[in-house]
Write a structure and sequence with these properties.
- By secondary structure, the protein is of the alpha/beta class.
- The chain has a single domain, classed as Alpha-Beta Complex (Spore Coat Polysaccharide Biosynthesis Protein SpsA, Chain A), CATH 3.90.550.10.
- It has helices at 3-29, 58-66, 87-97, 114-122, 145-148, 171-191, 208-213, 224-234, 255-275, 285-329, 345-367, 379-387, 392-405; strands at residues 45-51, 73-80, 102-106, 129-134, 137-139, 156-165, 203-207, 238-249.
- An 8-stranded mixed sheet has the order 3-2-1-4-7-6-8-5, sandwiched between helices.
- The longest helix has 45 residues, at 285-329.
Length: 412
């Protein structure tokens, strides 16, 4: 067995391990996925909405939260991070529309990052719970209420929700819709082993005492929602997810916007891994699972891309040299010996791994209950997602690492 084959077997073992783990968690807990604890206390809560150049959506975002239906909602703080459009004027109009509920504030100078705007808005909150949402995200009615019961457990520091794609007008958006559903499904499964690693920005609720105790958001991190979740775990808090609490968010509709977003996500993930690298196999599930899970995911992605490039390059070079020699020597370019109809163990393992991944994605899609206006993706879209879209992940990982090595850490 050559070195590359050995490495590939290790790669396959790690991939099989995580896939089987998620499948086992699902079958053991499938009846609990949609459940939320009953409300025994009417917690007071305030929501901070961050806004930068979102004049087209900020008004509807405020309306959605104002009509969310939870009686304990005391304040909606809308933070304009020095927008260059007319977002601030719209926010002021909504202050007048909801005089006892909405409070518009503007950062003294642009913070240039979501964490800065969120931290600024949190200064105006004194309720027991504090939630954060984005200016282009729209929580469903009842979404706040469906998270409240989790906070009866004093160890719970945060509760996240199901984030789904709102705009699905082109192929890229439809592919992201599938991706968000699979991510949602995976995140809930991770809750059952105490390993949720992110509380996404479209709607996440924190116990304010925990939020302030750990120092709020890290403005130096490109993915403040990942970093604060790891910090909560590091400090002994639990993080939960309410699947029935849904929020629809506007996803990037162009390849450039999508690519920039994914690069930022991955660079922020690397920053977080470096920051908490000393917690490996320490600090509860953060070190026992979350950090290794991230590291192995990076390994699988980058190594898989490397093997693919190596195999293709090797096949091309060998075939090119063989063809060139055969032409010059007037010999046959192809013979029956060139066709190997006996599948190797590597091909077999690859097919099994792909089949398991396909099955996992299908289970995730079948687990979601969406509005009637959002139809399940068709076979063609699903196959494009599995055969092409997922192959972009390793490329994004490599580009993200390269940009970090070059010192490019701006939030964009």
């Amino acid at each position: 067995m050559d070195f590359l084959t050995g490495i590939f077997l290790v790669y396959s073992f790690i991939a099989f391990y995580f896939l089987f783990l998620f499948v086992l968690i699902y079958f053991q807990n499938r009846k609990e996925i949609q459940k939320v604890p009953p409300i025994t206390k009417n917690y007071d809560i305030s929501v901070v909405i961050t806004c930068y150049n979102e004049a087209d959506t900020i008004g509807k975002a405020i309306d959605n939260l104002a009509a969310n239906g939870y009686s304990g909602l005391k304040k909606i703080v809308v933070v304009d991070d020095c927008s260059k459009d007319n977002s601030w004027e719209i926010i002021q109009k909504y202050e007048k529309k909801y005089p006892d509920l909405v409070m518009g504030v503007q950062t003294p100078k642009g913070t240039g990052c979501a964490a800065g705007a969120k931290n600024y808005g949190s200064k105006f909150v004194n309720t027991e719970l504090i939630a954060f949402s984005d200016g282009d995200s729209f929580p469903e009615k009842g979404s706040i209420e469906k998270t409240i019961g989790f906070f009866d457990d004093k160890k719970v520091g945060a509760v996240t929700s199901t984030v789904l794609v709102k705009n699905r007008t082109n192929l890229l958006l439809k592919l992201q819709a599938i991706e968000y559903i699979v991510i949602k499904f995976t995140r809930k499964l991770l809750e059952f082993i105490g390993s949720i690693y992110v509380t996404p920005g479209p709607l996440a609720i924190y116990r304010r005492s925990a939020f302030e105790k750990i120092g709020k958001f890290d403005a130096k991190n490109l993915t403040e929602d990942i970093e604060i979740t790891w910090r909560l775990l590091y400090n002994g808090y639990d993080v939960k997810m309410s699947v029935p609490s849904k929020v629809y968010s506007v996803a990037p509709h162009t390849f450039k916007g999508w690519f920039r977003q994914r690069i930022r996500w991955n660079k922020g993930g690397v920053q977080t891994m470096i920051k908490y690298g000393g917690s490996f196999f320490r600090r509860g599930m953060l070190g026992a699972f979350v950090l290794p899970f991230f590291v192995f995911s990076w390994f699988l992605g980058v190594f898989g891309l490397g093997v693919l490039i190596y195999r293709l390059a090797k096949a091309f070079i060998v075939r090119y040299l063989l063809t060139t020699y055969s032409v010059k020597a007037h010999a046959a370019i192809l013979t029956l010996k060139d066709f190997n109809l006996v599948p190797s163990i590597l091909i077999y393992m690859g097919l099994v791994l792909f089949t398991l991944s396909l099955t996992f994605s299908l289970i995730a899609l079948l687990s979601i209950r969406e509005k009637k206006e959002f139809k399940r993706p068709g076979v063609f879209i699903f196959l494009v997602y599995e055969f092409f879209y997922l192959l972009t992940y390793p490329v994004i990982l490599v580009v993200s690492a390269w940009e970090l090595l070059r010192g490019r850490k701006t939030w964009s």
